[in-house]
Amino acid sequence: MKKITFVQVGIALDISKADFRACIMGSNGQKVFKVIASRKFSNNTKGFSEFNHWVQKNLNKHSITEAEYLMEATGVYHENLAWTLYEKAHKVIVVLPNQAKAFLKSEGIKSKTDKIDAQGLAKMVLVKNLRYWKPISPVLKELRTIARYYEVIQKELTQNYNRLHALEHSHDPNKFVLKQLKNHLKFLEKQKESVHQQILETTKKDEVLHEKMKRLTTIYGIGILTVAVVVAETNGFELFSSQKQLTSYAGYDIVEHQSGKYVGQTRISKKGNTHIRRALHFPALKTVKQENIFQELYSRVFERTKKKMKAYTAVQRKLLVVMYTLWKKEENFDLNYAKQKVVEEQECPPTLGSY
């Protein structure tokens, strides 16, 4: 067999909590792909060191000087390896699971194992033009951690208020449990206030960042907490060059089902960052109470669909796009200007230069 000369190499990493499967694949530049090596490593410092030696050994064997590393964003389990590779000046790519899934599906890959996924992702590195990963800034990383903890407390508060309501309306409620629930709710409320204050203090650690975040609060219904979540979860919109990329990342991209005469339900994918969608839920409910472009959008979508949640979701998506635009342009929200530029977001997404 004729020896293949590789001109491009991709290294894919299928990561789980305990370990990760690595696959090195090469391309000759003429659509010929070959797996060079594949192996599993522990997802810890020792495993990273073994992985690094293994990669260098295989690259040297084929006289390859550099490669691109690709991994899925698997919760937080990919972060340590991504940082380790980045600090060694490697080219790192992090993709969303739905991006990886779509590529594997397009390749006709039906089986699912760590080895098969790694091979599919390795080919994805070689055939797709993907943006390199850039770590989140220290302040935004801290802000993201605190904001996510705030979200946990808020969810626990809601659950316990529901428990208290159910217990108070039951027959002969247990006084001991009632007292415990009320005390726990008081504790959670104090925690919530403390974490909220910490979020405010963290936003002020970077003066430039704080000023840019304040601009987004000029949108009616958007508070600093919502801004903190959106900005932290998107790394200050650093990796997005279009509104389409951002809405897809947040799970607001539109999914249609249509074939021949069959027309299925149109909905958002929800395959994206749930923290952003959760953060924009209540602001969307509030902003439509004021006469503005969001209220107009809500009315149009509701009139067309007769579904409140669909209209509110359209408003959430619009809020995210406007926040992105204001951030990139470093401007405050101008209601009068926005009214002139009002666009039906579901049918005709605006360009970056408009709201």
Mean pLDDT: 87
Rg, alpha carbons: 24 Å
Helix share of residues?
Answer: 40-55%
Instruction: Flag low-confidence runs.
Output: 342-355
Shape: globular
Structural domain count: 2
Strand count = 9
In percent, how much strand structure appears in the residues? 5-15%
Find the structural class using helix and strand composition.
Answer: alpha/beta
Could you give the order of strands across the largest sheet? 3-2-1-4-5
How far is the N terminus from the C terminus?
A: 59 Å
Give, in order, the helices and strands.
EEEHEHEHHHHHHHEEEEHHHHH
Largest sheet features:
5 strands, mixed
Secondary structure tally, helices: 14
Describe the structure.
It is a single chain. With 355 residues, this protein is of the alpha/beta class. It has two domains: 8-127, ATPase, nucleotide binding domain (Nucleotidyltransferase, domain 5, 2-Layer Sandwich), CATH 3.30.420.40; 139-340, no CATH class. It is 54% helix and 13% strand. It is built from 14 helices and nine strands. The strands form three sheets. Strands 3-2-1-4-5 form a five-stranded mixed beta sheet, sandwiched between helices. It has a two-stranded antiparallel sheet with strand order 6-9. A hairpin with a 3-residue loop joins strand 1 (8-15) and strand 2 (19-27). Helix 5 (138-168) packs antiparallel against helix 6. The chain is globular and about 75 Å long. Mean pLDDT is 87; it is low at 342-355.
